[in-house]
Amino acid sequence: MKSSYFYKEQLSVIETFLKESGNAEYLNDNYALLPSFCDVHVHLREPGFSYKETIKTGTLASARGGFTAVCSMPNLNPVPDSLENLKVQQDIIDKDAVIDVFPYASITIGEKGEELVDIPALSKKVLAFSDDGRGVQSDEMMERAMLLAKENDKMIVAHCEVNSLLSGGYIHLGEYARTHGHQGICSESEYLQIERDLALAKKIGVKYHVCHISTKESVEVIRKAKKEGVDVTCETGPHYLILDDSNLQEDGKFKMNPPIRSKEDKEALIEGIVDGTIDMIATDHAPHSVDEKSKGLKGSAFGVVGIETSFSASYTHLVKTGIIDLEKLVELLSINPRKRFGIEQNGFTIFDLEQEFTVNPEEFLSMGKATPFEGMKFYGKCLLTAHNGKVVYKV
Predict the structure, then answer these.
(1) Which residues are catalytic?
(2) Which run of H or of E encompasses 356?
(3) Do 157 and 131 contact (CB within 8 A), yes or no?
(4) Predicted pLDDT at 114
(5) What whole-number distance in Å separates Cα of residue 305 and Cα of residue 307?
(6) Which helix (H) or strand (E) holds 58?
(7) Taking a C-beta distance cutoff of 8 angstroms, is the pair 237, 257 a contact?
(8) pLDDT band for position 1 (50/70/90)?
(9) pTM of the shown model
């Protein structure tokens, strides 16, 4: 088995485990043994929206993608904005999750941006604080949130979006929007709020993480902040690294927030991956029902699925093309997110890197089927994922 990520003692334990669990066929020199992945940005939809996804289906899908740890976003019902509401979600996690799930609490009550949650009380129970899906519009409220997060040694994880600049947009304000009569979302709506938050983070000294960056300006302002010593990390998603707005179609599977942007933005994101400005790849896995995603670009809900294709998409378009090596991809998907968020390594995954397959959403274990990668050919098939000494997925 190909692996440079485990000590000899660990390899011996893994080999024994595979033999004793009846999976010795995966001890194959043609397969890659990798540390299991960690996705810090996943929507599991439960409680409140189990018609889109459940913690059971979402974690099974994650295991199929090679993940044994995911961080669940708080846009739920009830929103985890109190210990009582958080317990509703945690009870389901304890009962149904097949891998580790680390919940976020919201920054504001109900994610409405009007009143801060009890950050000191919730800090004992959650990974970090985020109003994902919504940017915190008030400068003063974000500053207070950062101060409390720092006092409690927690991270602020920000969806950055200036509401006053959205203008009803739903795809990137670029060539496709102009030529097809669509309302666009400008790049400023993202990077201007990142700039605000970076100034606050520098002032306060809080740990700060930026969700799903998509613009070239976002890369540049984060690169500059890192050089100035701001304690900032960021993520982007595979779809922003592989697609640009010239790939858009009149189909809801191409609609997410932030949107797929220009070729120049994509190239800047790839440069950010190469030079370390972008610390990790996270999917923003966001399942919806078929009906919610079947109303074209304008009418469909924001969000696509990606947890089952994240490694393969990234491996095919970043590693096979020579942009980065496999070790760097493992850092982006496993090492860096675990280190930044304090999540211990707890498993391994085995991939056949030479196996090519066509993305077929009907094969997904996720209840969500909307992926912009549908029909594309990727390399790297997940064969087995193990978590805490138990096989949680195998073909």
Answers:
(1) 284
(2) strand 347-358
(3) no
(4) 97
(5) 6
(6) helix 55-64
(7) no
(8) confident
(9) 0.97
